[in-house]
Amino acid sequence: MEEIAMTPPSQGEVCIESEGDIVLARRRVRELAIATGFSSTDVTRVVTAASELARNVFQYAGKGAMRWSTIENNGRSGLELQFADQGPGIADVKIAFQDGYSTGEGLGMGLPGTRRLMDEMEIQSPPGQGTTVTIKKWRKI
Ligand SMILES: Nc1ncnc2c1ncn2[C@@H]1O[C@H](COP(=O)(O)OP(=O)(O)O)[C@@H](O)[C@H]1O
Ligand SMILES: [Mg+2]
Question: Which of 38, 58, 108, 124 could staple 100 via S-S, CB 3.0–4.6 A?
Fold first, then answer.
């Protein structure tokens, strides 16, 4: 019979209010992704996505937080990251997802790129209530 290592789900938070915090968030995500057992390609994908979203928090809202949690579904493990801020919000999420759309000086590839790199992605940005972006990646079996 196959032994299944059960690790308890865990969670934590990283504040994002400086350039240095983006580096810390990246570093934490890299450690978590490796601990979750992602392939090195998937580690890079998740770190790249987290980096884009952490930068958006800092750039557009000034500050916010990344909440992370390990997730489990039918014995499959994964990582969920949630980037939350109380900034101006995104008026039209559908437009923000278009390749090349930017209200700043960016390339406008952060959100669409992140969607391609992750398995699941959801944005909540109700008027006047900031922005919360949730992304998930599942470990391949
Ligand atoms: N956390 C956020 N708060 C407010 N607006 C955001 C946030 N994240 C993204 N946006 C908006 O969505 C647009 C697209 O984001 P993104 O794809 O990362 O491109 P870029 O950052 O290069 O402009 C941004 O230009 C900005 O208008
Ligand atoms: Mg961006």
Answer: 108
